[in-house]
Each structure stands twice: as structure tokens, then as C-alpha cells.
Amino acid sequence: MLEMLTVIGPMFLVIVAGFGSGFIRRFRQAGPHLNAFVFFFALPTFVYTAMVTAPPVDEYPVMAMVIPLVVTPVLSVLVYVLARWMTRSRVPAGAAPDAMAAPTSLSATFGNVGYFGIPISIGVLGPEAGLVAGIVHTLHNILYMNGYPLVRTTANTLRASGGKLGSIGELWAKVVWPILKRAVLLNPVMLFIALALLVVFTPLQMPTLFDEPVALLGETAVPLALFCVGLALHPALEGVRSGGVPKTPIALATVVKLIALPAATWLAILPFYDSIGPIWAGVLIIIAATPSSTTVFLFSEEYDGDGRLAAAILVASTALSLITLPLIAEFMLT
């Protein structure tokens, strides 16, 4: 537990620094620009460098890929059903029936993998976790960066058209293709992960003139990303203070994200632990235990029309993860 605290303690202090800076107007105004730098430059280069400099991984167990792609969406669906039942009387007039259930489900299972999961995995498990964390991060992004926009856009289109989607070609052109293009083809993190996989698994080697500046940019990722998380807590708290956010889905999503999801992942790993190995198992559990992603707030604003609930869950899960992450490391990684 002490080892985990020494890893995540400084990270939370950077978040606190970001939160404190958010009381100053110039930093609040700079938030979107800092986030853009992290997304387009710092995080992609950090993930790339972590993957290409990590020691070789002996095996790539299939079950390590299957578990997050099964456990996470199954739990997400269960939370959606439960949250829809719990909030059925709290949905505002004129809003979609799942206006609260959808962001609750997303917040409960979409973790802050890039900003938290990868650096914590490397800090706790060693540099050999870099490539593994990058691969799991890719699976995580494919599942959520494509899956949630596709599901919510399709649901909103159905609702707006009275249950008619139109032709397959129209659905592809108006719904599927724009989301895939933005989430995969134009996503710098995905592009750099793809490049890293080519470098790791093929004879391709990038020149030093490329790798060195990329590594320098990547060194800014973790502190700047965490600083941005601290800044992002301000609009999140403002959204919560504006009212209209029930406490029940906040509690449900926070408990599922910080306790139920890592516990379910751990239970799924146990029968296959010998084939998966400690590094893959550790990365899967740490990533499952990360707090709700800042992207959840953005997705909820765009696809659900109201990001206040997602913001409240973001604040609660981020604050409580300082306690839950060390406990999970103590009991599940030993």
C-alpha cells in the first residue's frame, strides 16, 4: 500500500495544484488550450515512448484481451438498467428516458486510463508494463471512443425520427463513419499507438531525430494532464452546484467504478492467472480501478445533452480513488 501511495500521492498533489490554479482566471481560460496540447501532443507521445521503450513482453495472452472487452461492457449494461430504474422518477420533463442512466453507466466503467492508468501501471509494476498498458489502453479506447458515440447517436437518431433509421447507407454516412473517422483515423493517441505497435512487432525503426523530440514531448504528459484534471474539476463542481443532480446515481457510479469493476476484473482474472501472468493481470486491475475519465463529461455534454451528472461522478471518483487505488493494490496485486 505504501508503494502505491508513493506513486499516486505526487500525482494527486499535481491535481490539487491544478485545482488551486483554477481559481485564477488566466488558468481557467488556458484550460481548453492545455487540454488540446495534452490530447494532440503530450499524451500520444507519452504512450508511444512508453510502448517502444518497454522491455519485450514474453506472451500476449488472449484472455487478457478478452476480459476487459467482456467484463466492462457487461457491467456497463447492468449499471444502465439499474440506473434507469433508480432514476425513472427524476428524469426532467421532455428529456430522454435514459437521460441519467446513460451517463451513469458510462461514468461507472469508462476510466481515466491515459492520465492515470498508464503512468500508475508503470510506476507500480515497472517499465515492462508500458507496452501492456498501451495495448489495454487501445482496447479501452476502441470500446468507448467508438462504442458510446455510436450507441448514443443511434439512439438519439431513432428517437428524433420516431423509430426510423433510414437506409444502411444513410446510417453509415451520417452516424457511423463520422464517429469512426474522428475516434480512430483522426485520433492522435490511436495513431501513435498504431505506430508504436509497428515499431514493436515489425522491423520498422524510427530515426533518433524522431524518437528524441517525441520522448521530450511525452515527458510533459503526466504532470500536464493531471494539472488539467485539476482545472477540469472547477466546471464539474459548477455543474453540480447548479442543481438537478441526484445523489443516488453519483453513489452508484462511483462505487461501481472504484470497487465493483476492479473486483469483477480480478475475479475474471483468477481462473486464468497462470496464463495471463502478473504484469497483464496487474495492468488490467489498475486500469479497471482508475477514476472516471474526464472524457465522460465531454461525451455526456455532447450525446446526452447535460454533463452535470457525469461531472459529479468525475469529482467523487477522482477524490475517492486516492483511498481506493492503494487498497486495491494491496489486496488484489499481492
Notes on the protein architecture:
With 334 residues, the protein is mostly helical. The protein is built from 15 helices and no strands. The chain has helices at 2-21, 25-53, 62-86, 101-109, 113-125, 129-160, 168-185, 188-201, 208-218, 221-241, 247-269, 273-276, 278-288, 294-304, 308-332. Helix 11 packs antiparallel against helix 13. The longest helix is centred in the middle third of the chain and has 32 residues, at 129-160. It starts with a helix and ends with a helix.
Report the order of strands and helices: HHHHHHHHHHHHHHH
Structural class: mainly alpha
Helical run tally:
15
Q: Outline, from the CA principal axes?
A: globular
Unreliable stretches: none
Characterize the biggest β-sheet. Answer: none
The CATH topology name reads Na+/H+ antiporter like fold
Instruction: Look at the structure and give the CATH class.
Output: Mainly Alpha
Q: What is the radius of gyration computed over CA atoms, rounded to a whole number of angstroms?
A: 20 Å
Number of extended strands = 0
At CATH's second level, what is the architecture?
A: Up-down Bundle
* Straight-line distance between termini: 10 Å
Mean pLDDT: 85
The fraction of residues assigned to DSSP E strands is under 5%
Helix fraction? Answer: over 70%
Number of domains: 1
